[in-house]
Design a protein that fits this description.
about 100 residues, mainly beta, seven-stranded antiparallel sheet, 1 helix
């Protein structure tokens, strides 16, 4: 699936306006960028870094903790597996350096 990045919470890895390809159901490892639903608002999706496994879910963090309005596991705790949609596999627009773990 394709998603568009909004906000500055994943700078410098991702910037507003970046377009990503997400592989639904792909295995997630620490350091991967993932697409997930917000636990307290499942209609909204977020792109975050999978920091570590925490019980039956993932601790998801922003790369830029000082970004205005950023929301991640420091706000809502671990994200249950069923809310993790997939792993980001490619940024296809704009063409820049490849995605790398932090």
């Amino acid at each position: 699936m394709r998603v568009r990045v909004e906000g500055d919470s994943m700078r410098p890895a991702l910037c507003p306006g970046d377009w990503l390809v997400v592989r639904r159901g792909a295995a997630v490892r620490p350091g991967d960028l993932v697409l997930a639903r917000l636990p307290d608002d499942p209609h909204r999706m977020i792109v975050k870094r999978a920091a570590w496994r925490d019980g039956p879910g993932w601790w998801l963090e922003s790369d830029n903790q000082r970004a205005p309005g950023r929301r991640d596991s420091w706000d809502f705790g671990a994200v249950p597996d069923e809310l993790v949609i997939g792993r980001v596999v490619l940024r296809y627009w704009p063409a820049r350096r490849p995605l790398r773990p932090r």
